[in-house]
Structure formats: structure tokens, C-alpha cells
Amino acid sequence: MSAHVLTAVSDGTAVITLDRPRALNSLSLDMVRAVTQTLLAWRDDDAVQAVVIRGSTEKAFCAGGDIRFFHDLGRATPQQGSALVEDFFTEEYALNHLVHHYPKPYIALMDGVVMGGGMGVAQAGPQSRVRIVTERTRMAMPETNIGLFPDVGASYFLSRLPGRLGLYLGVAGATIGAADALYAGLADHYVPVADLTALEGVLSSGGGDRLPGAIAAFAAPFKAAVGTSALERNRAAIDHHFGAGSVPAIMASLQADDSDFARATLAMMATRSPLMMCVAYALQEQGAAMSMADCLRMERAAVRRTLENGQVIEGIRALVIDKDHAPRWEPAALADVTEVMVRQILAPAWPDHAHPLRHFHGAA
């Protein structure tokens, strides 16, 4: 078990606390393994009726995977990545699949930063999930900013958002708050920070299958206090521009619009990997008609191909290591991204019988 994952069980409610505050609770391989082992044990434990997952710091629920780990190991063998990096993605996606199909109420307290891998352990399947946000919530799938694409099942859960919100969040990598998360369907309830102590009382009161209803009743009075959603305000523009049919068409549509939203979105997309924006778009287009299991298998193969081309190492270098914010993307311009390049990333990396996630199941 990891020193950065704390667990407790009381009155039928089990709690997982991600406890790596200096790294904003970003997931290491040991943490992924510890959470997985814990959820597997609790799944068949009659003494556990509901699971709560939370972060140990007000700054973050979970900021994603440990990208410094990817950079350091990836540099050792930049063309093929490393065995540990491969293990991380395989085991992280296994955890995402487990969470999606968890048979007991699964409550994610998404206070603070919730990004990348943090979304993967929060966006459980619709039959079990309860996702709580606060005014400190800062949610994003920003992977195109580091030369990757939204993964951890994002081709499933982003592609199912209303209109073109999923493409906006996944391709552009925008950061949203509580009101936006609720509007998009990426959260269920809003609880102000000042009332989190009272919420703890609800979470620790037991009740098993009744806990989601108790949370909903507790959070109901705060619904009007969440504020207005920028996504809702800009929904018509998002659906118009991101419904253009391709990333180049989206950019052209935005360039023809002199609004503040269009200018801000163009500036944001100018910093993203051109190739990975196109891959992110293609993954959502395919994922919209696929099960969670198939989406994770597709993403796992795409990660393998992406690790081979070195985009992730360069993106992490520019953003986190050297912090020059000047990634040398390959190709550097969107106009130079070809359909062949995108298809190469999405091509199967293993025969079906040898895929590391071949045992995943589930029609949804």
C-alpha cells in the first residue's frame, strides 16, 4: 500500500484520502495500485456500503498523474518510454474501469484542483456516482497542453456531454469551475466550503444505499448559490465553433469571430499540441459510440503510440521542468498535421488477444 493513500471505514462508509499534498495529490503508480487494491477489497466486503474518495488538502482533490515521473523515465528511453510508464497507464486505466463499474455508491469530493487522472477516479459510472464540487473546484482535461490527449476514459465521458462541450473541454483544454461542472454534467452537487464540515457529518452517518439521497438533500439548499455558468453563457458559440467538423475548421470558425470568447479560445488553442488536438477530436468522435471498456482500450493504444513519438516528454519539459512554456511541437503548425499522422496514433498497438486491457467488459 502507498504511504500517500489513507483509508478508513466507519458505520458502513469507507473513505479513501489521497494524501500527497506537495504534489497536489497527483497519482503515482503506488497510489494507483493502493486505490485499486482497496476498492477491490471493499467491493466484496459487506461491511462497506458506500465509498468516499477525497483529497487531503484544500488545494486539490487530484491534479492528475505524476507527469514528472513520466518525464524522468521517458527521457531514459525516449522512443519507447519505459516499462514503469507503460505499467502506470495500464493500471490507471484498470482503476478507471473499476471505478466506472463500481457496484456501491461512490462519492467523489472534488474540492480544489481536479484534472486529468483526478477526473478518472471521480467520474464513476452513472449508477453509482455522486460528484460534489465547491467554490474552490478547478476542473480540466488539459492534456493537449503537455503533448497528450484527454484520457482516463475521457473519450467516453467527454463525448457524452451536451452539444459540443466535450470537444471544447477536451481539444482546447479549458479550465472550469463549479457552476460549469454542474451545467456540463461533470458534477452532481455544489456544497460551499463553509459547509464541508457539516457535509462530513452526513458522509459519516452511514446509510449505505441511502447516502446519495442524504447528500442530495443536504446540498439542495445551496443550488442557487453556485453562480452562473460561463459554459452556459457561451453555449451557442461553443456548439457553433466546435461543431465545425475538424480542428482546422474549428480554428477557422473562431478566427472569423471577433468576440471575446473566440479570441480567448484561439489564444488557448495556440499553446496546445496541434497533433494532439486533432487526436483528441478523433478520439471523442469515435468514443461517442463506444463503451467505457472499448474507449479505455482505444486510449491505451493511443498512449502507446504517443509515447513513441516523444510529444509528452517535450510538453512536460516546457510546462513543468524548464518552465519556458515554449514547447517544440512536432509538427509545429496545425496546417502540417495530416490525417495519416492522426491515424498512426489511433492505430492498434497490439492484436486484440494481446491487448493489456483485453479483459475489460461492460456494454456501457
Automatic annotation (TrEMBL):
Q: What's one GO BP annotation on this UniProt entry?
A: L-valine catabolic process
Q: Which domain of life is it from?
A: Bacteria
What are this entry's molecular-function GO terms?
3-hydroxyisobutyryl-CoA hydrolase activity; enoyl-CoA hydratase activity
Under which EC number(s) is this enzyme classified? 4.2.1.17
Task: Supply the Gene3D superfamilies for this chain.
Answer: 2-enoyl-CoA Hydratase, Chain A, domain 1
Q: Which UniProt keywords apply?
A: Hydrolase, Lyase
Q: Which InterPro entries match?
A: ClpP/crotonase-like_dom_sf (IPR029045), ECH_dom (IPR045004), HIBYL-CoA-H (IPR032259)
User: Which CDD domains does this entry report, sorted A to Z?
Assistant: crotonase-like
Domain Enoyl-CoA hydratase/isomerase: from-to ranges: 14-345
- Matches recorded under SUPFAM superfamilies: ClpP/crotonase
Q: What is this protein called?
A: Putative enoyl-CoA hydratase echA8
Gene that produces this protein: echA8_2
